[in-house]
Specification:
There is one protein chain. Helices cover about 0% and strands about 60% of the residues. It has no helices and eleven strands. The strands form two sheets. A nine-stranded antiparallel β-sheet has the order 1-2-3-4-7-8-9-10-11, with no helix packed on it. A two-stranded antiparallel sheet has the order 5-6. About 25% of the residues are buried.
Length: about 190
Amino acid sequence: LHVNTRDRLRALTLKQTDDPARFGWPELGEGLALDLEAEWFPKLFDLRDDYLVLRGSAAYTAGLGPLGVGVRVGGQTTRGEAPYYDLAMVGERQVRGLSSDRFAGSSSLYGNLVAVKPVGRFRVVVPGHWGLLATAGTGRVFVGEEDSERWHWGAGGGVWWTPWDFATAVRLTLTRSDEGTRLYLRLGFDF
């Protein structure tokens, strides 16, 4: 199930010949995106047992004056004896600064916050806009009888550039986490 109520470029009406980069800052779009997924795997072939995987996430984006903010929360639970690759993971996709799929367990929770601030115009082959960004996130996995209360964190900042909107943005981010420091060069935003 995927529901997305975001409204991109709602205040901007362009003619086919207009160049959108000349008409102000790209809009973040305001609204909610909800994703829910359930998968059941029967005991077939090499599987030792039936298992169920439930995943969900919700993201909200809004413009707060000149600042755009995106918030995302999510989690996963796995019931039954699942192979490693279907366990609930927390890694760089959930918390920036961690290694990919760094922590695994029977359930997981995570949350992220991204703030973007347009700064100016900059031409890289084509005209576009650039700005600053800040990120913060936390997440953890739960493992059966484990009694750990440890939440893993990551926070950082960087710059972005886009010729059109945030879906086409190029971003360079330096993120520090409880596992180390990482530099990311990515396309688009996660919200």
